[in-house]
Amino acid sequence: MYHPTTRVLAVLELLQTHRRLTGIEMAQRLEVNIRTLRRYITILQDLGIPIIAQRGRYGAYELGIGHKLPPMMFTNSEALSLALGLLSVQHLGVPEIAPSIESARAKLERVLPLELRDPFRALAKAVTLDWSKGQMPLSSELILTLSSAVQLRRRTHLVYLSGEGEETERDFDPYGLAYHQGKWYAVGWCGLRQDLRSFRLDRIKQVNLTEAVFDPPEAFDAMAYVVQAIAILPRQYPFEILLQTDLASTEEEILDVLGVVEPIQDGVVLRGSTDDLEWLARQLARFSFDFVVREPEGLRVALRNLAEKLISHL
């Protein structure tokens, strides 16, 4: 014997599959009378599901365009993924979606089976994520507009404010978005500079889709571009260090922001620049492999000072 809730979900399933069915067709499939079917339809409508009732001799029921809500059934690992995902998205710098996150979490808790509900709730209370970098607040509309432009391959027109306060306009073909160190970036072809560029979303004052389209490079990695672009930004002290290890070990241990690496016969060369040699010395001291500072001399001094300080604590 079927539970009434199962039959209500079956109505939704039928409408999602067939989009439009007459009352008689659905009642026959569910083995219920028309009056009972109407009660099920009313329950779904009260839940906010847009079911359109067409009256008359050839009347039927139809699911509103764009609606898709299958019954929610999750495995333990899927429930864990959802819980962690909701925790993470709170820190992505889009404050206007915070109420939606809480609403989504509450809805998921209600539909999860009892054996998953308690672990789901426990994760939200027990897990703390390290988002030590400050987040810049953004509009969700900006992210959605640029995401749509990436997917549709549509050129955009940007009004952008540089770090120095200069406002410029340009056409921009977005290849992808990346979230790195507390900031959102859009990466793509800049019509003003005629080159590949990245733009911080918190500095975009206005974005509009145009009718023009573009062909992006295949398998473009927006995050890799942003990481490298930040690593090679010009700073006060350029450096070059020979790491006496292989590329795989280097990539496991170094921070992305340190610089760019190049494998050579004697090891791996790390090149970059920094405004703080003492900070760089502390990062190098963490390596499990040997290294040789090629330049600058100031970095050698900073490493000696750090070594003497550590020895003094023995």
Could you characterize what this model shows?
This protein is of the alpha+beta class. The chain folds into four domains: 4-63, Arc Repressor Mutant, subunit A, CATH 1.10.10.10; 76-126, no CATH class; 140-229, SH3 type barrels, CATH 2.30.30; 232-312, 2-Layer Sandwich (Alpha-Beta Plaits). The chain has eleven helices and twelve strands. The strands form three sheets. A five-stranded antiparallel sheet has the order 7-6-5-4-8. The chain has a four-stranded antiparallel sheet with strand order 10-11-9-12, with helices on one face. A hairpin with a 2-residue loop joins strand 5 (167-180) and strand 6.
Q: What secondary-structure arrangement, pairings included, does this model have?
A:
Elements: H1 4-18, E1 20-21, H2 23-30, H3 34-46, E2 51-54, E3 60-63, H4 76-89, H5 98-111, H6 114-126, H7 140-152, E4 154-161, E5 167-180, E6 183-190, E7 195-200, E8 204-213, H8 222-231, E9 237-243, H9 247-253, E10 260-264, E11 267-274, H10 277-285, E12 291-295, H11 297-312
Antiparallel strand pairs: 1-3, 2-3, 4-5, 4-8, 5-6, 6-7, 9-11, 9-12, 10-11
User: Count of DSSP helices?
Assistant: 11
The biggest beta sheet, please? 5 strands, antiparallel
User: Can you tell me the overall shape?
Assistant: elongated
Q: How much helicity do the residues have?
A: 40-55%
- The parts where pLDDT drops under 50 for at least 5 residues are none
Instruction: State the distance separating the first and last CA atoms.
Output: 76 Å
Query: What's the CATH topology name of the largest domain?
Result: SH3 type barrels
CATH architecture of the largest domain: Roll
Order of helices and strands: HEHHEEHHHHEEEEEHEHEEHEH
Radius of gyration: 28 Å
**What is the average per-residue confidence, as pLDDT, rounded to a whole number?**
83
Can you count the beta strands? 12
Strands of the widest sheet, in order across it, are 7-6-5-4-8
CATH level-1 class of the largest domain: Mainly Beta
Supply the number of structural domains.
Answer: 4
Computed structural class? alpha+beta
What is the beta-strand fraction?
A: 25-35%
